[in-house]
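Deliverable D4.2, example record:
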Amino acid sequence: MPSGFDRTTPIIDLGANSQPLRWGSRRWLLWPVHAFKLLIPAPRNRALNLFQRAVLDLCRAGMRWPEQISARLELPTDLVDFLLDQLRDIDLLDQAASPTERALRLLAEEDEPPEIEEVAWVFVDGLSGRLWRRLRRGELPVTDCADLPDQQHSVRLRRGTIGNPRFDNARYLWPDGRAPVVLRPSARDIIKAARSHRRRAMAFRQEWEKANPDVLDPNLLARQGVRVLSPVGEPTFITVCLFAPDDAGQRSWMVTDPCGLGVSDLLRPTINDLAQQDQQGMRRLIERLTGEAWQVDETELAQVLDDAARAAGERVRLRLGEAVDLLPVEALRHLAGAEEALAHAHAGGPGMARALDDAYGKAHTALETVLGWLVGLYPDPELLAALTPDPEHNADLCMNVAVILGFETTEETRRLLRVSRAVVKGALLDGNRSLPGRLTAALLATRLHHPYPLAGLGRDCPWALALMARFQQLRNRGQHFSERPPNLAEASADQDRLFDLLRALVGVGPAGAPAPAAVGAAGLDLLLRIRAQAEQRVRNQYSGSDERPQLHTRLIEMETTAITLAKLTEAGAASADILGGRLRDFVVAAAIAFEALLDEIDQVAAPAGGEPPDHALGEDKDRNAAHITAVAAALGFALDDHGALPAALTHAQVERVRRAAAGGGETLSARMVALLLAAGADPRHPVRAVATACPDFLLLVARLVKARGHADLVMIEPTEALALHERLIADVRLVLDALDEATAGA
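Output generated by the structure prediction step:
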């Protein structure tokens, strides 16, 4: 350590506090500074106020009439009359408005520099070498301390008052050998520091009504000067506090102002530098600090989620009325999940966008379940006779049926009904869960079976098909990577119309519609703590992700769901439905994060790209799989034990792959195949760098695609998902490093 700073260096406490916030978990630090002693003019009580002095000066200059003084000072005449009378009463003006001998003597005394001076201090940071923008008047209060056994870098401080002492452990921050040269501050720098101190003190007074900071007028220093007594700074430690607010809405650590002016950013840049460079144990200190502040009890979390699910289920029963007894139980469960997600969105906060996407996804699954229930009531293969392999022909047929039934039709509706005969057959006979296949089967069934529940829906809710098309579109957007933000008001209105549709479908009239629920304070606090943990984990584990905002956000969402799943799995107190729902949330969030990662790869490839290449994929899935596998092997990606890539990846729909290659987004498997084939035709494509850095990347993507499944079907267990999460972290790091190298090389 540099000379001057050791365990005998005096420690001063200038009253560090967290006002107006309440601090939760906290760590005290001893900050090294070089204190420079000053002599400054002592403020004195003025005999005259500003208006009296101005009027008296004008009278001395020969202006004696109130109208003249009023025009010169731009003050009302009656106010000038009052000031003149006041100055006469205290024997500073005679009856002719001329200054008296007493007035001239008083003016001369005020213009002279004060004979009394007082001590003040400024501080130069011992770590950064910068002059702090603070000025301390009076002597420095040295605090008592005691050594801690076997702890070279900590000391026990005595704070508070003699009658009410407080004892805290504090950690030394030692300047290293590379500490900057400390220069004696100039008078100009000291005046600037005094001005900044005054601004911060005034702001602190507004933040906290009890604040009464000791403020020096910097203009006094500018007019009458300041003298620096210390040729060199005196080594000193000042107590500051690093803390996490006792409010989960604040998702970051804070640091107190060293001069007792509440919370400020004066020292935050230096702490950030120490943490990023992993010096003096600052990174670990911050992790431990925030870990304590954002601690979440697993049993309490399970109880909060259980209460939220129960409340959402009750709201569904109120909104459906008698329809609750007619609709399938599985659909009610998905509707409750949508209600719960919408309640989280109404609570606001950084997770609102993800909550809205979840609400649309679960409402869409509820629609799929209800239509599957309808198809199951009349599983008639005869309706397949009217269909062909051509989706356009089938869309025309279904649109005509919809018009006959009284439904409003749009281009989005037609897009929803563009399905092949095989898709509808799968919905009828093979348990295919897709909304388009089940809706097409239900529409055609209305022509063969009378009465059929869907037949009357066109009369009561002509907008029903348009709403289903909207849910399909928003579900696809929300369950895959997209930059379009959701809308809370529209989501609430869509949810209301969905309940109207379901009641009309089973012939039940209007039911209660309670106001949108919000998450309780305790539940919101837990969710915010988990979100804060996720944000910190992303900052620590995914270096450089903050330079890619979309990916950064998706990684935070993935880590939020991973933390929730891990805590519920460890606690073992959550119900199967709640655990399954959180498992599904994690798999979806992880898939979306990887889609965002592939989008980053595509953006790096775009400048060197051009027109998307012809991928030479056809209708033969086996030939497509062989071609994709050959390209992957040529690039250096690892294959499975059978020398191939999993079907979850190679059987991506050709149309989806082509749309992904043209920049149209699409599913994780389609995006991956499009990038893979583009890399096979481009020797500079960044996917080649990914293959070198992470050969197992394609196998991991395939596993994630398979685990995702469809709707609420998740093909993975919680413990497997947590193990998969660890692999995802490692691969994202490797891919980001490879992208940085590819970008630097370009």
